[in-house]
Design goal:
By secondary structure, the protein is mainly alpha-helical. The protein has a domain at 94-267: MetI-like (MetI-like fold). It has helices at residues 2-10, 12-29, 34-39, 45-54, 61-72, 87-122, 127-141, 144-158, 174-199, 203-210, 215-252, 258-267, 271-299, 301-306. The longest helix is centred in the last third of the chain and has 38 residues, at 215-252.
Length: 312
Amino acid sequence: MLKYIMKRILMLLPVLIGVSFIVFFIVNLAPGDPARIIAGVETDEETVERIREDLGFNKTVVERYGIYMWKALQGDLGTSYYSNKTVIEAFMERIPNTLLLGFWSVVFGLIISMPVGIISAIKQYSIFDNLGMVLALTGISIPSFWLGILAILLFSLKLQLLPSGGNEFWYSVILPSITNGTQMMALMTRMTRSSMLEVIRQDYIMTARAKGLDEKTVVLKHALRNALIPVVTTAGNFLIMMIGSAVVTETIFSWPGVGRLIVESISKRDLNMVVGCVILITFIISIINLVIDLIYVLIDPKIRSSYGIMKG
């Protein structure tokens, strides 16, 4: 097991280098002079040139990338051109808000999808099943940015029930969570329904019913327990999706997370902040993936044997 973990950790290095390479060069392809943006429009050319030299913008992109990665490998992801905060410091200030939004998005998705998926499977082809599948299809089809705008118009501007942005109040997370978790809710509803349909047709479920157990016990104790295995293990992957899609949601709702920080940094051409945040997010997502894979390995003996991992 230790060998497997070390192998996966070593695989992170080329992934992080590849991501940093792509992001670094894409940001440099964006129009505009970062030195001019930092100095201001009315600043004289001599000052702009001095800023360009101080920040290394007079070097080629390849040279700057090499210097940046050499420092990054030593744990220095750079400093913001505007706030003078280190990338790690700014990231650590924002990441709790992003993780909080991701957590409540997953909670919202599970609260809705689990009962709807279970009942849809039990009452297959009923009106409830049809409505549930329409709800799931609608949730998958609606873009997050459009749903977020509609939520602000309805619940913030018209009904004035919830704030339209920020995180000043505890309930400020409600609209962003619903917006961010709707597609997960839709996908999990369909997955729960499919998993339940597969389980309730198994022989042991028929045996349980033949023994005279009431339907509630059969569904909740026997069917649901086995149907939840793929659903629960997939929830970790959806948390990763929530972190990735938070860029759109955080921008719409002015949520002070990493996604919004990246968007603000892109508009300012704050290269260090953009590349550093993307590297750190990639690292976190990779670690989450590693944890999920380890859970798979520990739970399923077939996966353990396929990787040549002995128990313990």
